Amino acid sequence: MEMPTYPWRRDERTLSRSMPGLVVVLGPERGDPIVLRGTGVALWRALDRPQSTDELTISLAEEFDASPDAVRSDIEPVLEQLSVAGVLRAVS
Predict the structure, then answer these.
(1) Is the pTM of this model over 0.90?
(2) Rounded to an integer, what distance in angstroms lies between the CA atom of residue 31 and that of residue 38?
């Protein structure tokens, strides 16, 4: 799946609970919960405001002192999973 270049935003109907080291996300369709750990927690936190994949990549690469290419390859599948689950929307 090609990642959109426009910003992602959380679906306002999504429920989430943060605990030490993880976030549990339940989408509006109330399917199976998604559990985010590690950098997924930082990604979810960063999505508290609309951001593009590029913006997310840059900010998380800086936060974790990692290469942008490595961060992008880590977050793209998570963004896709969250999008498919309906908890994220691409804002055009």
Answers:
(1) no
(2) 22
How far apart, in whole angstroms, are the C-alpha atoms of residue 55 and residue 47? Answer: 10
Q: Tell the residue number behind the tokens 């993880």, with chain if given.
A: 22
Contact at 8 Å (CB) between 75 and 47?
no
- Chain-centre distance for alpha carbon 31: 17
- Which among 80, 24, 28, 34 has a CA at the least distance from the CA of 53? 80
For 8-59, what is each residue's pLDDT tens digit? Answer: 999 999 999 999 999 999 998 878 899 999 889 999 999 999 999 999 999 9
> Which pLDDT score is estimated for 31?
80
4 has pLDDT over 80: no
Both tokens of residue 57?
A: 């990549």
CB atoms within 10 A of CB 24: 13
Q: What does the alpha-carbon distance between residue 74 and residue 86 come to, in Å, rounded to a whole number?
A: 19
| Residues 6+ positions from 21 with CB-CB distance below 8 Å | 37, 38, 41
